[in-house]
């Protein structure tokens, strides 16, 4: 009797494992790296108040201004930056791999398209409140998720 429960339990566990694997987003059309990049994109935020104090957002590691934003195939980390209106903002964009740039249309700033391993810094005054998208303008990178949000409070 005890042996039967063990076998039934093992069958149930294997069935659940198969269901979880089939329902995961890691399939033939999506490799593990892009899945990890989605996790990175969805769970990072950083902000610095006008006094220079660091305020943490969702998850991830946080740094003080100037901000460092890493980008790669198809992510920005962090993907949320918060500042106060009137702050002078400096963002150092580090390209982890591929060919990318970093653009914020509403503040008329952006980097050149740079290759993996290169970096470029932009700076501007956050003179208007709101949420502003930053993105990579190369090919379809923006549509594939290479974007983030600058929040000016």
Which key phrases capture this entry?
alpha/beta, Immunoglobulin-like, 4-stranded mixed β-sheet, 2 helices, 13 strands, 22% helix, 35% strand
Structure description:
With 153 residues, this protein is of the alpha/beta class. The chain has one domain: Cupredoxins -  blue copper proteins (Immunoglobulin-like, Sandwich), CATH 2.60.40. It contains 2 helices and 13 strands, in the order ααβββββββββββββ. The strands form 4 sheets. It has a 5-stranded mixed beta sheet, with no helix packed on it. It has a 4-stranded mixed beta sheet with strand order 4-3-6-11. A hairpin with a 2-residue loop joins strand 3 and strand 4. The longest helix has 22 residues.
Indicate the CATH topology: Immunoglobulin-like
The beta-strand count equals 13
Class by alpha and beta content: alpha/beta
Average pLDDT number: 75
Q: What percentage of the residues does DSSP assign to strands (E)?
A: 35-45%
Task: Summarize, please.
With 153 residues, the chain is α/β, with parallel strands linked by helices. It has one domain (2-152): Immunoglobulin-like (Sandwich). 22% of the residues lie in helices and 35% in strands.
Sequence-ordered SSE layout with sheet pairings:
Layout (H helix, E strand, L loop, with lengths): L1 H22 L8 H11 L3 E3 L5 E3 L10 E6 L2 E3 L2 E4 L4 E8 L3 E2 L2 E2 L4 E2 L3 E2 L3 E7 L4 E6 L11 E6 L1
Parallel strand pairs: 1-5, 3-6, 5-13
Antiparallel strand pairs: 1-2, 3-4, 6-11, 7-10, 8-9, 12-13
